[in-house]
Amino acid sequence: MAEDDRPGLANQALLNKIDKLRELNAKSIELPQLVVVGDQSSGKSSVLESLTGFSFPQAPGLCTRYATLISCRRAPEKHVTVLIIPRSDADEAVEGRLRAFKRSISNLTNEALVRIIEEANKVMGIRMTADDTEPSLQTFSEDILKIEISGPEQEHFTVIDVPGIFRVPSPPLRIATLLCRTIILAVLPSNVDISTQETLKMAENADPDGMRTMGVLTKPDLVTEIATQDAIKDLILGKRNQLRLGYCVIKNRSADDQQSTISDQLAQEKAFFNRSTWRQVAASGRCGIGSLKNRLSDLLMDISKKEFPHVKADFARRLDQCRSKLESIGPSRTEQSSQRIFLGKMASKFQAITQCALNGYYDSEIVFTEVPSLKLITKITKMNEKFANDFWRKGHKRHFSSNWDDEGEKMYKLTENNDNSMPFEDLLQNYPELHDIIDTDKYQCPKPKAFNDDSIMDHIERVLH
């Protein structure tokens, strides 16, 4: 397919639906997504800039402390919207404050974007410098900063940038949390030993079989040794790699080149890979940002189409669960009469469950399947059996025979415990209100004295005299 004929980096309507679900905070339901991960010095920002055409602002203390969702959309007018998607466990007050943050600008400058991101950091409570000693501030956040870029030249594209690998304790969003609907784009510098890269090791934890991970090699212009160049070529050509999606290589903009446009960078990259050193792999379709975008287009399209029916099914199940819970709550009860009727029904239901628990009619109420420890008559029977067994073993003061199995017909056997019931101690801990109606004092039953050489008749004679 020619590059001009490609449909963009996924079907627009489909991606819009997925982004809307993510913005509405889908919580535990995983959505198809493309996630870019990499070390702080891996060239990840340059990869994201090449993919999205969005230049990330450079400012002291502005390094990523949370996941950033970059969404590109084609639109007649050029503008950028920045908002915050709250974490799934945020309380109502925090969620309201985070969702209230929304900034839109049409004239995008580095200074304006830096100012907006700094405002977002304050709303999320991010500690940006060592001088921030406020205890409520946090180094990392599980909230997501969404940057929506619209314009007539934008391709439809969505990518998530997760925090780089910091040399400090545990960022909150770990690669290991990425599941089966996530494509992992692992950004790796070419001028270091790939086998030692922590990014690749962490991606392997989330994708042990390497089925959903693509390696992106950066900074090939810094590779001068022939052996290292050959090793990079082998990775690109698939001669030695464990990633099913393989590797691509792109050339980053140099650190001192801050003036060149995207078109200039693409021209420089094409000229670089046309050199004799890299010409062998240039024909593989895995060199340059254009080739990378084409591959991501196919991958994102495939996973979106494949997983979206499953996503719909997950949401349908969740919706049914919510409806069932709402139906169990019943209609609104604002009047005292309706409240009394409801409490009366609750009391009657409790009485019915208690009666079933005492009579052993466990099949009539689903609560006994959900909470086996409520099977009261079974509990009482087991307690009686245990008491009878203890009494048979320890009820006498001393053994009458060395072979103490001869002293009774048989041991009282306990009923097999196959109901996975909760012990009374745990039950009382979970329901402290039961302390007033359950006697928790355990009876003490010391062991009988061991048999000795004295006969039982000698023992009786001593007792009588």
UniProtKB/TrEMBL annotation:
Keywords: GTP-binding, Nucleotide-binding
Keyword check for GTP-binding: yes
Gene3D superfamilies: P-loop containing nucleotide triphosphate hydrolases (3.40.50.300)
All copies of domain Dynamin-type G, residue ranges: 28-309
InterPro entries: Dynamin, Dynamin_GTPase, Dynamin_N, Dynamin_stalk, G_DYNAMIN_dom, P-loop_NTPase
Pfam families named among the record's database cross-references: Dynamin_M (PF01031), Dynamin_N (PF00350)
GO molecular function: GTP binding; GTPase activity; microtubule binding
Biological process per Gene Ontology, one example term: peroxisome fission
Cellular component, GO annotation: membrane; microtubule; mitochondrion
Protein name: Dynamin-type G domain-containing protein
Species assigned in the record: Zopfia rhizophila CBS 207.26
